[in-house]
Amino acid sequence: MNNQQNKLKTLVEILIVSTRLGFTSFGGPIAHLGYFHEEYIRRRKWMGEKTYADLVALCQFLPGPASSQVGIGIGVMRGGILGGITSFIGFTLPSVIALILFASLLHTFNVEDAGWINGLKIVAVAVVAHAIIGMAQKLTPDIKRRTIALFTLVMTLLWQTPYTHIGVILLAAVVGFLLYRQQTVQEQDSFVTGFPVSRRFGYVCLALFFGILILLPIIRNLTSIEWIALFDSFYRSGALVFGGGHVVLPLLEQEFVPRGWLTEQEFLAGYGAAQAVPGPLFTFAAYIGAVINGWQGGLLATAAIFLPAFLLILGTLPFWDALRTNPNIKGALMGINAAVVGILISAFYHPIWTTSIFEPVDFALAAVLFTMLAYWKLPPWIVVVSGAAGGMLISFFS
Fold it and tell me: What residue intervals traverse the membrane (predicted)?
């Protein structure tokens, strides 16, 4: 009885702490990792510094939303699989609810062409430009990786299909392996002992991850059920994104806009709104799902896009020690990370720039917003509110 009470107490504690982070964690995945470190490591000491660093390294290695995967991993280590689910719900639900409500507002009041919506689209220009600069400095420091990024940029601009991004990421992994397989891996301490997920369960999770990824498109082609098609599109996007929330933009745009499930205007308005809410950027999927099929679609989209993150973190944690010391794996990852930069630059041009910047005044507002974010270091929600206000002023005087 006492053991059950302790487990329940632990789950309640995880829910309270993660929900508070879900309401206050603005600033994107890197900022989220800082919030996690302050709350989970420094204040509550749920794990040591080295264990946390290893967990972060693993989640940077995996496709999917890195900060969400770190939060899930911390929850699992603290309270088992239920702890991971609880941690995820607390951190994710606030932004999911906010974006579903925004989608409802967009439809109910027909505000798609309002000035403040155009301002949110210009916010997306500033945010993605800032992300590109930061990621390029870290992920393409030498001429080889810059060349990989350039090749990826050209391919994704000239050959715009849902499968292009998958192809260039796989090709970049092969090139990275060939170019950087001699990379030495520094000796590291053991990851963590007593992890509450067995290797057998890890194999099951990895088998489910790949099984769903392979079977869903087949089932989708054999049926005409809309929710299966939606689940497949969101699951595939969540499973194949390296680099975090900003990089999921081109995959989601290619999946949903050409098929007519939502317009380019609706897509970019939601992306701008996603910058105004705390929590993971992957909750942008909740907005898309809600635009397509109400709050039920929003919840389905959230479950589908985050399911790969769950399966991957639970599947790989038991094997991380062996993976992280493999120089071949590290070389492939270096190539993939360089490709991410190219994909992000491609998305910056289309659809973000081509559907947001039409007049000199649009570019001027984008420059102001970028300066607020990159140099004045203002919180993202202030930048978003300023962009909406700027968009209203532009529409008023034009």
Answer: 55-76, 88-109, 115-136, 148-180, 200-222, 234-252, 272-292, 299-320, 332-350, 381-397
H or E segment to which residue 10 belongs: helix 2-24
The answer for residues whose C-beta is within 8 angstroms of residue 214's C-beta and 6 or more apart is none
Q: Is the pLDDT confidence value at 39 over 70?
A: yes
Whether the CB-CB separation of 174 and 332 falls below 8 Å is answered with yes
What's the CA gap between 369 and 20, in Å, rounded? 28
CA nearest neighbour of 171 among 343, 361, 370 = 343
pLDDT in tens, 276-287: 777 888 888 999
**Residues 140, 137: Cα–Cα separation, whole Å:** 6
C-beta atoms surrounding 190 within 10 Å: 9
- In a 10 Å sphere around its CB, with 0-12 CB exposed, 13-18 middle and 19+ buried, how is residue 161 labelled? exposed
The per-residue pLDDT for range 153-199, each reduced to its tens digit, is 999 899 876 567 778 888 998 999 999 876 655 544 444 445 677 88
Amino acid at 164: T
